[in-house]
Every structure is written in structure tokens, then in C-alpha cells.
Design goal:
The protein has 222 residues and is an alpha/beta fold. It has nine helices and ten strands. β1 and β2 form a beta hairpin.
Amino acid sequence: MHDTASIFHADLAVPAVIRTAPGVFAQGRRIRSLVFSTDLAIICHCDADAVLAVYPFTCQPAITQALVAASQRPVLNGVGGSITHGERCIEVALHSEMQGVAGVVVNTSIPIDTVEALTERLNVPVVVTVCADDAVAARQIEAGATMVNVAAGARTAEVVSSLRRRYGDLPIIATGGRTDESIARTIEAGADAISWTPPDIRVLERAVMEKARRLAAEQLEA
């Protein structure tokens, strides 16, 4: 007989503290948590409200299609930055929108004219990843960025707080760190939603195999 309880224990639950965030809205849904991953096995077994799918290569339509089809929740898809920008970034973003993404993400190095073109031509939110509340971030927000995604390492809560004071109702997504305390600080600083990095698939598989070996040894001893 199968132990159904163990199946549910295998699911990846985002930290409960993230549920205290006010949330951002995309595709008619309130999003408080985003799983930062392109691993479909991780995504399909995680209870995050949305997916933050950013990877260090030019966006590929086949990958976007797989993510949108398998995720069964809003996907914010990386489309450009230092590697992909200009007309290529715009074309990829338009294609991603047609594939059903909830928003497109560009990083802090994206040229301002690309941000302007994206906001003019897309109907989905344009999310700019920022590392500081500086002149670069200000120009990107003024260019029409719909949301910002703060990824400033140990300074994330500080940057979130500064952006919140300066821009009021601007929707802010932010990395929360590895502990409940750091996530809570980021939310208290003004983050509307938190991106959560799940455990590496190799770590999860190692834990499963260690349990399997232990159970096998117990069967031999019985």
C-alpha cells in the first residue's frame, strides 16, 4: 500500500512568512511568492504563486513554451539584459507575450530605449531587475518599467526601503534571503512579493536516495 502522506511531504512549500506580503497582480491573480527556477520538476512540485524564469542565455521560445505549459500559474520570463537587447529583446518579448507569459523581465544593464520600446509595445508588465536605488534604476522606472525586481544581496531590504520611500505605490518584487527573518525584513521594508530560490534538485535527490538506502537496509535486517 502506498504511503500517500509521504507524497505530500515531498512537495516544496515556500516559507509561510511570504504569505504576509501584500502581493503584486498579474493575469488577474495576486502574487505573493515566486519560485526562482527554470527546472520543471521543481516548479511542478512547488506551491509558489508564480514562476520567475530567468536564465543566463538568450531567451528561447521552446523553453518559454515548456515553462508556460507546465507551470499552471503565471510565469515572469526573462527576455533581455546585457546579452540580449535592442530589437532582438523586443522580438523575444513579443513572442513570449503571445505564448502566454504574465510578464517579461530584463536586468539592470538593459538600455533605456529598450525599456521604452518594451513598455510601448507590450500589454504584459515589464519588470526591471535592479541592484540599487540609483540613477540607473530611476531612468528605467521613468522609462515605464511596470515593476521592479530587487536583487541586491545583503542590501536588498535597504534598497527596497529606499525605493518604497521614493516611488510609493511602485510594485516591488525582491529576493528574500535564506531565512524567515530576512524575508520578514524585506517585506517590512516594502516588498510586495518575494522571489524564493528552492533547494537544488541534487540536494533533494540526495535526501531521497539516503532515505531509500536506509529503508532498504532496514528491510534486509527485518
